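Researcher: Can you fold this with NAP in place?
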Amino acid sequence: MSEQWQSVKVLVTGGSQGIGLGIAKVFARAGASVMITGRKSESLKRAQTEMRELGLDVRTIVADVSDPASCQAMADAVEEQFGGLDVLCSNAGIYPEQQLGNITREDLDNVFGTNINGLIFSVQACLEALTRSGRGRVVVTSSITGPTVGFPGLSNYAASKAAQLGFVRSSALELAPRQITINAILPGTIRTEGLDSLGAENIERMQKCIPLQRLGATSDIGHAALYFASEGAAFVTGQTLTVDGGQTLPEVPLLQ
Ligand code: NAP
């Protein structure tokens, strides 16, 4: 545990499983105070139990990032329980597989409502608390899908993840006078409950495309988030960091 993190207060949206839970564990291990959110209280309880079994403390709050009032409630809860907020990890996201021809207005509202509106509402709700921190940080979990590469069946998701980067770059300029930085992580293929829903065949195909020959771990993304939140990254804003085991590097497909 390092002294740097002991007074740092962190909120992770979508922290009840997958990458968000991995981020929460990395910050908690470093010594920060961590609160996680998600829509389902049972999943949050399960995550809290898992972290406690590892000797890590975490607070939880049920919140839906697609709803601005719910985002405000989560920001108020973190302020009330921790007495402030230094780091927002905006990670909640969904990636339902849908062929282009079948995407409905409702599907678009669902994906953009969570991935883009949810990011913007989360930052808005936490704005004053992050400003009061004096060292506010926003770390966004974007993706290689959309900003860097494409994936059939994920076109609306890819569009939402690319849109996140437009928000990161422009909001970085608005947040800078408040001494708040905002940066995005572009994960490659990371083993999570959500990814498992894409099916074993898809996952095996993905693994074969990764030069480091393994799927990413949620802690790989957690450590990238920790970097963006660290004192060492104080002068870094509006940037992206790809964490993909080299997945987006090959000029021709790998034959592993
Ligand atoms: P996951 O296992 O499905 O977990 C998603 C988390 O987000 C859960 O905690 C879920 O909890 C929460 N969530 C979903 N909708 C929400 C909402 N409206 N409000 C609040 N919380 C919500 O997904 P993951 O694979 O860890 O992905 C996490 C993030 O990483 C996403 O933004 C995703 O796009 C990005 N990403 C993942 C990968 C990958 O390979 N896994 C790669 C690139 C980027 P509830 O369902 O209880 O709300």
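Model: Folded with NAP in place. Residues 13-14, 16-20, 37-40, 43, 63-66, 91-95, 114, 118, 141, 143, 187, 189-190, 192-195 surround NAP (CB under 6 Å).
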